[in-house]
């Protein structure tokens, strides 16, 4: 069923002190809708879709769908483009999430979000710990536990600083319901959040030490870096070799890592990158990206989680990001 053209949600009222507006409303009087105008909103639109879907490629498709609706709309129906696009993209994502849930229930092995290299600003500014956390692999996994509507409310509130009046306009619901949905989402997210949000510099140093120890097969070095209850998640989608289930505990993770490096490490080139706002490792074979690994740290600086994506379908967007121009 096609999505009806969204109504402008209206100019928001204040919803608490100190919450910055990231989507600025602006009245437009021209009669035509230009591609250039849409392009100016595209980074935020893509960032919203990615946070909603956990898939860069589906986010791109959603942005394209929104653009087609944008081109087909009358200028008189779009008083404030940013608000119109936020509503359009949110509803397109809600439609996609319904079918995505069924697909992910049949997914082979562990499902992880598609990695995005964020050092170039692909998901917008990530200057604060809160902004980095909003696109982290760990948080995106937790967001999968929410209902589609809870996820929409949480993303709009936390990542884009929407007030509940704005959210109610986007979702065609009441402010009271928006608040209730947010409370439920926030409780679920808090229950699954990482125990520690590291600063980039020590995190990077730890990732580089981890990579050096793995390359050298340094079991003792790896054991020093890993928490006793560390977990390794691997997403191969049934298309390449990967752990079908999480690998639990320091001893098993070290054994898994050393064995994998002996089997595949010699053929791979490793490099450091920022993936989803956090330091990570990229693995290439003959120049082709074959995997990413993102790290999660505990309060004492030990690795408590590693999320490795090796499904080639999920690496397509990141591969385009790192491909030479």
From TrEMBL:
Pfam families: Sigma70_r2, Sigma70_r4_2. Interacts transiently with the RNA polymerase catalytic core formed by RpoA, RpoB, RpoC and RpoZ (2 alpha, 1 beta, 1 beta' and 1 omega subunit) to form the RNA polymerase holoenzyme that can initiate transcription. One of its GO terms (molecular function) is sigma factor activity. Residues 137-187 form the RNA polymerase sigma factor 70 region 4 type domain. Belongs to the sigma-70 factor family. ECF subfamily. This is RNA polymerase sigma-70 factor. Gene3D superfamilies: 1.10.1740.10, 3.10.450.50, Winged helix-like DNA-binding domain superfamily/Winged helix DNA-binding domain (1.10.10.10). The keyword Acyltransferase does not apply. One of its GO terms (biological process) is DNA-templated transcription initiation. Residues 38-101 form the RNA polymerase sigma-70 region domain. The lineage of its organism: Bacteria, Bacillati, Actinomycetota, Actinomycetes, Kitasatosporales. Residues 1-20 are annotated as: Disordered. It comes from the Bacteria. Coiled coil: none annotated. Keywords: Sigma factor, Transcription, Transcription regulation. Residues 1-10 have a biased composition (Basic and acidic residues).
């Amino acid at each position: 069923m096609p999505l009806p053209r969204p109504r402008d949600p209206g100019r928001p009222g204040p919803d608490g002190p100190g919450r910055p507006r990231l989507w600025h409303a602006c009245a437009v009087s021209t009669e035509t809708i230009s591609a250039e105008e849409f392009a100016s909103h595209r980074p935020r639109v893509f960032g919203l879709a990615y946070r909603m879907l956990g898939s860069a490629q589906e986010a791109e498709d959603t942005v394209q769908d929104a653009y087609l609706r944008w081109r087909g709309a009358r200028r008189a129906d779009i008083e404030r483009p940013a608000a119109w696009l936020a509503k359009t993209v949110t509803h397109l994502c809600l439609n996609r999430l319904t079918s995505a849930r069924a697909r992910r229930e049949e997914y082979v092995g562990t499902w992880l979000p598609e990695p995005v290299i964020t050092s170039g600003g692909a998901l917008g500014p990530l200057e604060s710990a809160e902004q980095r956390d909003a696109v982290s692999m760990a948080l995106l996994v937790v967001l999968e536990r929410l209902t589609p509507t809870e996820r929409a409310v949480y993303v709009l509130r936390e990542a884009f600083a929407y007030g509940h009046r704005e959210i109610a306009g986007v979702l065609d619901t009441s402010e009271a319901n928006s608040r209730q949905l947010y409370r439920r989402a926030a409780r679920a997210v808090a229950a699954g959040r990482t125990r520690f949000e590291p600063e980039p510099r020590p995190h990077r140093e730890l990732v580089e030490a981890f990579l050096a120890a793995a390359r050298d097969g340094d079991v003792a070095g790896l054991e020093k870096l890993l928490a006793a209850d560390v977990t390794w998640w691997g997403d191969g989608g049934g298309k390449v070799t990967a752990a079908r289930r999480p690998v639990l505990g320091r001893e098993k993770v070290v054994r898994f890592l050393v064995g994998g490096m002996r089997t595949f490490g010699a053929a791979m080139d490793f490099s450091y990158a920022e993936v989803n706002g956090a330091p990570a490792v990229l693995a290439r074979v003959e120049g082709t990206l074959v995997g990413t690994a993102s790290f999660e740290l505990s309060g004492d600086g030990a690795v408590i989680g590693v999320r490795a994506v090796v499904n080639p379908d999920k690496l397509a967007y990141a591969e385009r990001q790192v491909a030479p121009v």
